[in-house]
Amino acid sequence: MSELHKFLFDGLPVRGCIVRLTDAWQEILQRRASNSTTGPYPAPVAELLGEMTAAGVLMQSNIKFNGAVVLQIFGDGPVKLAVVEVQPDLSLRTTASVMGEVPAGASLSQMVNVHNEGRCAITLDPKDKFPGQQAYQGVVPLFGDQKEKLEKLSDVLQHYMLQSEQLDTLMVLAADEQVAAGLLIQRLPVKGEKNLAGSLVSQENEDEIGQSEHYNRIAHLASTLKREELLTLDVDTILRRLFWEEQVLMFSPHIGPTAPKFACTCSRDRVGAMIRSLGTEEVEGILAESNQVEVACEFCGKQYRFDAVDAAQLFTTPDATLPGPSAVQ
């Protein structure tokens, strides 16, 4: 079963989190593979999505925020967009738009950053917005300080979190067809709480970047974790092997009902609103060609179908509850 563990190092300004997604990740891949239109993700795309999903869970669990954390990678390669959304209860969903051939063993830059124009965006979307409040979004390129292409998603996210939080952060990410996993190690803020929106950014925290001997030691130990170890070993074994000389204080784990899980927020109402936004002329054109408007959720694969009567009701009673599905798979 999927699991998430948070921990502290006793007496040291360092915290950590480790996630292993098993059933949740396998369901995502199975849903995609069962889509007769798209088929399964190419192996490099699945690996990228798995790493993104593990990273999204780590970031959501590391902040105090009542809303969704959305991680997006987009660019000019065959993978036009990859998206992960993680809710406060650690329910998650993910998808990727692939347009073109992805060769076996393709790197991050080959998939989304061919001409060094790829970007990574992280959005914090509050559940209960105040009037006029907008979601916070930060964007970083998929290259380093010298314009060199970054080939590891963890390097991109570490750069982002250093910019947004002024906190040293290390991530180790890995994924295959069975497991998506990640380890996060972060220096604690000098004072106050921090989050990805950059609240309470202080000069004191910025001045501490790279200066904590305790963080540097623990981050070095964490960086020795191999991909195969992260994918195959249980959490206790990983922490014991890496930090056997440190005093690690564990919080209650997120397992069972509170564990990360796949869940999609699509609904007929939301699809109807999207169809309505196309306008009557566009919808009538679709109906003239195929007698129905069919929309498949990119995240879970569920199909929604609206016939002419359903579509007409969308425009004649826009505030009414949408009718039941004519045929939903």
List keywords for this structure.
13 strands; single chain; alpha+beta; 11 helices; five-stranded antiparallel β-sheet; globular; disordered C terminus; 329 residues; six-stranded mixed β-sheet
Count of beta strands: 13
Q: What's the rounded overall pLDDT mean?
A: 86
| Gyration radius over CA | 22 Å
Share of helix, binned: 25-40%
From the N-terminal CA to the C-terminal CA, the straight-line distance is 27 Å
Strand residue percentage: 15-25%
Account of the protein in words:
There is one protein chain. 37% of the residues are buried. The C terminus is likely disordered. The protein has eleven helices and 13 strands. It is α+β, with helices and mostly antiparallel strands. A hairpin with a 4-residue loop joins strand 1 and strand 2. The radius of gyration is 22 Å and the shape is globular. The strands form three sheets. Strands 7-6-3-4-5-11 form a six-stranded mixed sheet, with helices on one face. Strands 8-9-2-1-10 form a five-stranded antiparallel sheet, with helices on both faces. The longest helix has 19 residues. Helix content is 33%, strand content 25%.
